[in-house]
Amino acid sequence: MDALIQLIFFLTLLTLGYVFGKIAEKKHYRSIIEREKQWVQIPSTSGRRVLSTDREVKRVQLATGSVVISVDYFKRILAGLRNIFGGNVRSYETLVDRARREAVLRMKESCPQADQFINLRLETSSIAKGKKNQIGSVEVLAYGTAVYLYPVATATHP
Questions:
Q1: Which of 51, 64, 71, 156 has the fewest Cβ atoms surrounding its Cβ within 10 A?
Q2: Rounded Cα–Cα distance for residues 128 and 148 (Å)
Q3: How many CA atoms lie within 13 A of 16 on its CB side?
């Protein structure tokens, strides 16, 4: 009887972890999508040169954005099961995807007046490893060069 109660308790916690983890992930994705729509007009590239424009560079600035996102217990259990059978660990793929997109957004938000971002780089590391070196949290640092351009010159007629 005690084993059945423990099993029900475990399944209840697992279900709660799944439901609340899914809600939190969907809420974060909605936030990312809304903010990406705001910043889509500002180009960002991994290239080293300023994107072609007829405007001159006014100044440049280092831009950074970092984020740490943790995985919930339900996803950790799914990843453990995936290790047994092999294949893609989708629960971690969404974790890294959210972290990278959020870091780029935070980098752009750190320089809201920039006209473009060049030399964009992403550094990813796992932190707070749990038992058997399972990933507990992932940190992503996005950095690049924010480029500010002079305004478009207005034509003057003599």
A1: 156
A2: 38
A3: 6
The owner of tokens 């924010």 is 146
Residue 18 burial class via C-beta count within 10 angstroms: exposed 0-12, middle 13-18, buried 19 and up: middle
3-state SS assignment for residue 151: coil
Cα 157 to Cα 54, 79, 113, 154: the distances in Å are 19, 67, 30, 10
* Residue where the block lists tokens 């099993």: 7
Q: What is the pTM of this model?
A: 0.82
pLDDT tens, position by position, 8-52: 998 898 888 888 888 999 999 999 999 999 999 999 999 999 988
Q: Rounded distance, CA 26 to CA 24, Å? A: 6
Contact 116, 44 (CB under 8 A): yes
Q: What backbone phi and psi angles, to 5 degrees, belong to 133?
A: 55, 30
Q: Which residues pair with 139 in a beta bridge?
A: 68, 125
Taking the C-alpha atoms of residue 22 and residue 24, their distance in angstroms, rounded to an integer, is 5
Structure-derived torsion over alpha carbons of residues 128, 134, 139, 142, reported in degrees to the nearest 10 = 160
Rg (CA), the chain: 22
